[in-house]
Amino acid sequence: MQMTENKLHLKHVEITSGFWQRYRDLVVKEVLPYQWQVMNDEADISISVDPQNNGQDKNSHAVANLKIAAGQQEGHHYGFPFQDTDVYKWLEAAAYSFNYHPDADLQKITDNLINLIADAQEDDGYLSTYFQIDAPERKFKRLQQSHELYTMGHYIEAGVAYYQATGNQKALDVATRMADCIDRNFGLEDGKIPGLDGHPEIELALTRLYEATQNDKYLKLAHYFLNQRGQDPEFFDKQIAIDGNSDERDIIRGMREPDLTYFLAAEPIKNQKVPQGHAVRVVYLCTGMAYVARYTGDQDLLDACHRFWTDLVRRQMYITGNIGSTTQGEALTYAYDLPNDTMYGETCASVGMAFFARQMLHLDAKGEYADVLEKELFNGALSGMSLDGKHFFYVNPLEADPVESQLNPDKSHVLTHRADWFGCACCPANLARLITSVDQYLYTVDGQTILSHQFIANQATFADELQITQTNNFPWEGNIHYAVKNPQEKAVKLGLRIPGWSPKFTLTVNGQVRTEVVQDGFIYLDIQAATTDIDLVLDMQVKLMQANNRVNADFGKVAIQRGPIVYAAEEADNPAPLWQYQVAADAKTTYHYEQSLLNGVGVITVAANKQAAMSDQQVLYAPVSTGVENSETELTLVPYYAWANRLNGQMSVWLNRQYH
Amino acid sequence: MQMTENKLHLKHVEITSGFWQRYRDLVVKEVLPYQWQVMNDEADISISVDPQNNGQDKNSHAVANLKIAAGQQEGHHYGFPFQDTDVYKWLEAAAYSFNYHPDADLQKITDNLINLIADAQEDDGYLSTYFQIDAPERKFKRLQQSHELYTMGHYIEAGVAYYQATGNQKALDVATRMADCIDRNFGLEDGKIPGLDGHPEIELALTRLYEATQNDKYLKLAHYFLNQRGQDPEFFDKQIAIDGNSDERDIIRGMREPDLTYFLAAEPIKNQKVPQGHAVRVVYLCTGMAYVARYTGDQDLLDACHRFWTDLVRRQMYITGNIGSTTQGEALTYAYDLPNDTMYGETCASVGMAFFARQMLHLDAKGEYADVLEKELFNGALSGMSLDGKHFFYVNPLEADPVESQLNPDKSHVLTHRADWFGCACCPANLARLITSVDQYLYTVDGQTILSHQFIANQATFADELQITQTNNFPWEGNIHYAVKNPQEKAVKLGLRIPGWSPKFTLTVNGQVRTEVVQDGFIYLDIQAATTDIDLVLDMQVKLMQANNRVNADFGKVAIQRGPIVYAAEEADNPAPLWQYQVAADAKTTYHYEQSLLNGVGVITVAANKQAAMSDQQVLYAPVSTGVENSETELTLVPYYAWANRLNGQMSVWLNRQYH
Q1: Sequence-separated (6 or more) residues with CB below 8 Å from residue B230
Q2: Does the pLDDT value for residue B570 go beyond 60?
Q3: Residue closest to A612 by CA, chosen among A597, A633, A585
Q4: Which of A300, A331, A330, A312 is nearest to A369 (CA)?
Q5: Does the keyword Mitochondrion apply (chains A, B) (predicted)?
Q6: Which contiguous run of DSSP H or E holds residue A306?
Q7: How far apart are CA B374 and CA B369, in angstroms?
Q8: Active-site residues of A: which are they?
């Protein structure tokens, strides 16, 4: 498979969706300034509630680390060895924001930041402030835990984005010098390190740099890192034996304990049957795999992409799109093991899953990829940030109880309110960069075919003056209008996604009802007229959902979904405990949009049977049907992404089904 | 409350129950020899499967530690600082076995063991081999984790038992010298240590020594330890500051991390509202509290006993009698938090709960205490040992899946087959001593009142030639016959327990049906005739049980119970996955006794609806009621105590209730 020449390349997308405009403005107005303050240690925050804080205090020190490395400031490195990536992801988020919100003041800051980063970079292109400041003799010596290539990969992504948004050549030059440094140091040739980073990221970053520069070297290097993964299962141990075997030598405490599965390095990718290990590593690696496969046509990688995708999406994903069933190793476990209360579901893993889905759409025009992308955008990823843009979830549970989180240590990692910041602050800026770049997730163009696979209202401009204007009030309403302008009357195929949640739909083209066959989740229209008006009406009925009955945790339970939005019951709306409500399979539901609630959300009610709580004085166990009073009531549900913005209380996505 | 003069004191109980004879013979023939081999490092065992092994290998070294301390052998201490207690609990179990199975060969071993222990004991009475061998300067200096009083307490229990069983005075003398040593060292007087052990045990042990010796000093010392608990929350920290604050100084790695709640030392007992912390510590402390309260009448202690009992039994206990909802700290959590799959349910905690229940029966004649005692004997405690007597559970889950235990680290502590031994081997000998002493758990005598509160067939001889012969085929049949011989025609009140699981019963005295009022779980009969024949017929219907609906984990589920026996579904009898079966509240059940199965067990079948497993190729979530095939079938259940003696497969006590 070769890179397809996109005659119809996408030039610009303007998001007009009210839902996403609000989020994108929020990132500009609140998230970016707030995170910049935090990284400069100027914000008054508390991270003490963060169970992932790993002993970090509230000091981020991320910008200071760069200043020290640049010789502008004295001191030691502080924070995780990958602390630099907080800055890079923030920079990348800012770069995307310039595409819809140019801001000279912010650009002054980011231009200066590029200068700082360039100053911090060593002459040979190396940049990882921890090693430069406090362990220069240990560069590339403990890659299992050093995150050096992960860190530089995040800069490369940011540098490319910044260059593309602003034309700042220095930003790109820093990236290419980094990549050249890595290329000089890594590979199977004599004198190079025949290894790789414990945390994938460099693979996707280098491919992105290849796209920006068209320099084959970077694609080959990315391919090398994918091919090399798992080839030498002793690589990390051999490095550690040389670098020093004692606990004190560990760069991240405890990082030596997980086995190679955690690092996705137990065997070559082509031999790995199912994705296992640290969930974020998995999706970053998968993104790199699909990205490299797109440009190399490597069949082993393509097969692995499809194999991993299927297992992730059909067997290891929560209904909200979250992945990672255990806090131990922040990891995937195995097929259908999806506990709702002890789970992890890291925000970064959902962000990474969106990356993976986008890449898969480049490989195959399958609606399933776009379904999952949409699921992440509207649920699992978006849940990671509060409506005020200043509080964040690392862990996204599907069932939560503040008392449980406080008193049962098996659930202490589950916060029931979002935190100001994290000692390991990977998630906040990761979500910010997804939101500011969401315009890049709506279309996939291949040859003369345009896939319009998201229902996020927008105006897109392509080459040849082709313009698609999508208007709607999605996700609250399902009437999707497309106005296509094609003044040059080019022959174009337009693929419109029919989402998995809407097998029923009606399609009208220029006022005429059409009955197209759905092919892999898309209907295709030949567009050649100068103007075409299309109306797609999706099924926005409230649906009671069940899990595949191979999932123990969801057996006998229902979840509520409408369109792409998965709903949650919260104690803020429903007297606790939530598990005493039971919902019948045919329970009546209502839906209404409520402008004044949670920045405007669709609210669902579902008829439910509520058991009165039994006495706390009676015996704990008794023959069935004694002493249970039932009443007919209803549950009120709000979108999952918006939970935990009010009362700190119980929440549940899955509701008990009514028994008899 | 003063000690009541028991004119009617119990002289001897011979267990005639076939069920318990088998277990008691098993302990004599298999368990005691096997454990003796293990403690002498002569058994070929593997403890590598034990997630609690804490880095111990298969070497017990427990007897060797005593030999080194006694100067009979060179070397270092090996194992936990409380490794000695394995030997003591084994010795105590052996002592009880002599009451029903005198064995000169075994007694030669145990007499020699007493000599060894006496040789290992220091002149001042101190005995804790770890400190004697490897840290003599640190005695009593780090009581948070040293387990010194816990260790000596276990010897005191064993020494008293051995003295009472064999008349060996040396066994008792070692105990009194230990207690005197502790008395010289601990207390609020000048020059003494104003503290206590991190692990309760000494309190109940000293009270037992007081019973045996009638020396008030020991009761007062026990009372001191109870009163002092939580009085100085900084005691442990102050000791550690002096003994050395670095990790390397810790006697048990990580033992400094739990907060004072874990040690039950955050506040004085009288201020503690509910039992929290390490479950075994809780029940050992409660046993000591009830024991001391019986002899001192301390109202604060009595109140705490009732308060803790109520919370434990009505809010924190699994239907099997197990306690401890989390593996982290092997601890209780809070009311109604009873997850079935991530739980702990340590065997020792159930054994200790039986101790507590027995003590509570001395305080109040309440059937509830005997109900719980019976629940532990037939379920939660007994589950700790395999039918062959050579494999043991530390953790007793109510839901288990070998794949889950292997692939989800949150459940890695849940073994689905019993282990040969444990690095921390507290459970095996604890259960052995409960089984060999079960004859001491059947009667509670107070004044002229005899409570016969267990249905374990036996012949009991009291003072004044009074004899009660109970015959039955319990727990498989509910016809309980009592033949009372009272040749001196003394006026006696006989309390017969009506168990909580059998509100319906029939009572016949000398052939005449009687309708007595049940008072707190007992019916009382005035016995003065020379012979009385009593027939009690209990309700042995199979019952579908539900939990109080405040328990999230059991909502929408039923458990099956018959008499005191809680049942479990195993993959050995039912094709997995077990969660795909659903049981209606009115499901038909059958019961039959099967001699050839699991050493003879009652087997229950229950009608169930089985969903066919959905395809693993389809989407994970779909609208309800699509693609589910149901079939009518039945589940076969076996007693919980007998699970995991066949196929290593799934097990579940709680079954999904049928929904509509």
Answers
A1: B260, B264, B265, B266, B267, B268, B269, B271, B272
A2: yes
A3: A633
A4: A312
A5: no
A6: helix A299-315
A7: 9
A8: 330, 426
Sequence letter at residue B129: T
Return mean pLDDT, chain A: 95
Cβ neighbourhood burial of B17 (10 Å; 0-12, 13-18, 19+): buried
Per-residue confidence (pLDDT) for residue A51, from 0 to 100: 55
pTM for this prediction = 0.95
Token code pair at residue A23? 């989020």
Per-residue pLDDT reduced to its tens digit, A608-642: 999 999 999 889 999 997 668 889 999 999 999 99
Out of A328, A550, A625, the one facing B410 most closely (by C-beta) is: A328
**Residues of B whose CB is below 8 A from A614:** 548-550
Distance CA A637, CA A583 (A): 13
CA distance A575 to chain B (A): 13
In order of A194, A199, A206, A301, the CA distances from A223 in angstroms are 13, 15, 9, 10
CB contact set of B240 (below 8 Å; sequence gap of 6+): B142, B144, B249, B256
- For A221, the 3-state DSSP assignment is helix
Give which of A166, A158, A167, A234 is closest to A194, Cα–Cα.
A234
Q: Produce one character per residue of A529-547: b if its CB has 16 or more CB atoms within 10 Å, e if not.
A: eeebebbbbbbbebbbbbb
Confidence of residue A420 (pLDDT cuts 50, 70, 90): confident
Query: Nearest CA to CA, how far is B585 from chain A (Å)?
Result: 7
A520 contacts on B by Cβ (under 8 Å)? none
B647 residue type, one letter: L
Mean pLDDT of B403-425: 91
Alpha-carbon span A556 to A659, nearest angstrom: 9
Q: Is B3 helix (H, G, I), strand (E, B) or coil?
A: coil
Question: Which tokens is A448 given?
Answer: 């003369």
What is d(CA A298, CA A541) in angstroms, rounded to the nearest whole number? Answer: 42
pLDDT in tens, A510-545: 999 999 899 999 999 999 999 999 999 999 999 999
Question: Of A365, A366, A236, A356, whose CA–CA distance to A304 is shortest?
Answer: A356
d(CA B165, CA B98): 7
Chain A nearest-CA residue for B330: A409
Q: Which amino acid is at B92?
A: E
pLDDT in tens, A62-91: 999 999 999 999 999 999 999 999 999 999
3-state secondary structure A451-493: EECCCCCEEEEEHHHCEEEEECCCCCCCEEEEEEECCCCCCEE
pLDDT category, B269, cuts 50, 70, 90? very high
* B555–A580 CB contact, under 8 Å: yes
- Which tokens go with B384? 């700790």
B484: left (phi over 0), alpha (psi -120 to 50) or beta: beta
